[in-house]
Amino acid sequence: VVLCCFEGERWLPALLASIADQTLLPDELVVCDDGSTDRSVAIVERFAETAPFTVRIERNPERLGSTRNFAHGLSLAHGRVVALADQDDVWYPGKLAVMAWEFEQDPTISMVFSDADLMDSSGTPLGRKLWDTRLVGRTLRRHAVVPEDLFARRALTTGCTMAFRRRVVDAALPFPEELDDPWAPMRHDRWLSLVAAAVGTVRAIEEPLLAFRVHPNQETGVLVGSQLHRALARAATRVGRHSNKHEHAGRAAQLRAAAQRADLVGDFREAATLRTVADHQAARAAIGEGNQRASDVVRAALAGAYRGDPLSPLAVGADLVRSVLPAVDAPQEPAP
Amino acid sequence: VTLDRIDVMVVVDALAMGGAEQVAVDHANTFDRRTHRVHVLATRDGGPLVDRLADDVSLTILGRSATWDLRGLARFARIVRRSGIDVIHSHGRGAMKFVALARGLGLITPRHVFHDHFGWLHLDRGAGVALRAAMRLGVDAYLGVDARLCSWACTTAGMPPERTFLCRSGVDASRFARAQPLPLRSELAIRDDQLVIAMIANLRHPKDHPTLLRALAEIAPELRDRVKVVIVGALGVDPAYEAGCRAMIERLGLADQVVLYGPSADPPALLAAADAAVLSSKNETGPLVVLEYMAAGLPFIATDTGELSHAVRDLGVGFVPPPRDHLALAAALTELISMSDDERRAMGDRGRQVVLDTFDQPIVTRQIEEVYELVLGLRDRTDGLRSQRDGGSRIIARPAVR
């Protein structure tokens, strides 16, 4: 298990206790602290004294951010199967056992991930599921084995719900520079999913295997209630903005980087799928520059290039607007 | 119920070259003729396997054009009734649905045994409404070539465990015993001190040749120089994949170690010319070729996917590394190459004996005949079917979450 933490003293005890309570214990827990100034490290050190498995604690000399911190943690893990943990969740006792069982059932599975129950910052269940709040529930319940191109089209997974085989780690590391694109940063979990789907099959477990804490300070945005509506409204206002071009170009570069990793291990068909989606992203980046017209957008939509996302009608609309109107905002630097 | 002789109709979509079709033909040829009369019906086309059918097997090519070809269905029903068929044994889901539809419409009444060879369970674990309905209403017994299929049949498709049977494939060992080796060494200019390692697998992505190539690149150069890997199988079926493999051979500097031989009309003769064999598939439900390696008396490396690799992995007849793991495959190759000739020969002999004892086609076909007797009411479930133990009872429960 790889756990990355930062200023997590409030949540860590519950998470660590839930890992120690697993019906199938991990062989090791690699904890990478990203420069916490609170008691996070002390809590993990105390846990390590009595933990029924090896606990390795790493303190980063300088802040890496969660994505690079997870890359560092993965490089230190030894397991044939690696699961990711976030500091603020609580795992159900059977989480690792169920995931290991799934891997045992089918050697082609490279990654499994599950749904999660949402709870608030005090641990009270919110009665909602993670997949639904990220608008992926319908898709994933229809596809227990997730088609590889879906991962190329949208973010489906959350790191703390994932476990993968060693070959995914080997193919994913080192994380490519393209993930740090300022216009379209890609988090570790999406990169790992992309690679996992390229080098094997990915299984979505419908049953929640953990309680996922929703609180204002978390990095993985979960939108509930009015937050979700506001985010959709914000997305709608971005129609026709110049920044879209950079986002699509950045995404295309990331998909090509994943295709390169797939090629290296001989997954040529999967690499070709990734390149097809990358080409679509590159075409979207070129909209408004004279060589991509409204008719091209319509043609791509009819050919299914936008499929796989419940918001795809919005994307088609945005691209149509951009193809006929000049960008409403001036080119600008991305936010830091 | 008593029957002097059981009239069996083996139903396949076509008799083209393929694992499922080969199994269907092997069964048809080896049913006990004292107790069975054998008919083969291809619902769509014939194919090269027609020539491998025994002379006493009656063959019908129906030539149906679509899944719901009603005229073909009516003709099929007429043939079944006219031939007095007692048991229909369908191979493949397309053929099964065709037979189940005929049964569901009341056009035919024989018992129906469905032999499932589906190889894409890792990508599609669903069971659509039509498939579930066909299996529930039109199938009396389910034979899965892989334990995962049996588990799927019970848990997803709703097949009762007591009518679900694991049915491992068999191989006609006599074909390999009498094979004359091809002059492979002279044809490919292979040195006398080099081991010939054959891999029979079309150049298609499920066979995962890249993992084998990466494994070869990992082993020590002096060991690598001692082998010639001869990849036997159809070329040009997946041009992009083939181009990728060829580029990988160049990139990894394996041009002297790997030969893309193309298809072979006589696999037993080719295997007779090899010293060992390998299969690097990422996903299989058989794979039949492992039995062929063993029948040819070759020590082998086969990735741990599929029922047969699973069945023989602890018998000391070969190496069974996990699929998609080039380092584990490299370790197995290293061990195989480092063995003495005598050790390799002994391993191959053990494999051949396992085939003769367990997987020789007549033995496997007897197990199928037992299932027929069960669905016809000639035998009680408690009689101790050899195949029964490993069918629906092999479902392994998932651990609890909380």
Give an overview in words.
- The complex is a heterodimer of chains A (336) and B (402).
- Chain A is an alpha/beta fold and 336 residues long.
- Chain A has 14 helices and twelve strands.
- Chain A has helices at 12-20, 40-50, 65-76, 95-105, 130-133, 137-142, 148-153, 166-172, 188-198, 226-237, 243-264, 268-285, 294-302, 312-324, and strands at 2-5, 28-33, 54-59, 81-86, 90-91, 109-114, 117-119, 125-129, 145-146, 162-165, 201-205, 210-213.
- In chain A, the strands form two sheets. In chain A, strands 3-2-1-4-10-6-11-9 form an eight-stranded mixed β-sheet, sandwiched between helices. In chain A, strands 5-12-7-8 form a four-stranded mixed β-sheet.
- In chain A, a hairpin with a 5-residue loop joins strand 7 and strand 8 (125-129).
- In chain A, helix 11 packs antiparallel against helix 12 (268-285).
- The model of chain A has no long low-confidence stretch (mean pLDDT 88).
- With 402 residues, chain B is of the alpha/beta class.
- Chain B has 16 helices and 13 strands.
- Chain B has helices at 19-30, 70-83, 93-104, 129-138, 147-155, 173-177, 184-188, 209-218, 221-224, 239-251, 267-272, 288-295, 307-312, 326-338, 341-359, 361-375, and strands at residues 6-12, 36-42, 58-61, 87-91, 111-116, 141-144, 164-166, 195-200, 227-232, 258-262, 276-279, 300-302, 318-319.
- In chain B, the strands form two sheets. In chain B, strands 3-2-1-4-5-6-7 form a seven-stranded parallel β-sheet, with helices on both faces.
- In chain B, strand 5 (111-116), helix 4 (129-138) and strand 6 (141-144) form a beta-alpha-beta unit.
- In chain B, helix 2 crosses helix 3 (93-104).
- The longest helix of chain B has 19 residues, at 341-359.
- Chain B is globular.
- Residues 382-395 of chain B have low confidence and may be disordered.
- The interface between A and B is medium-sized, with 31 and 36 residues.
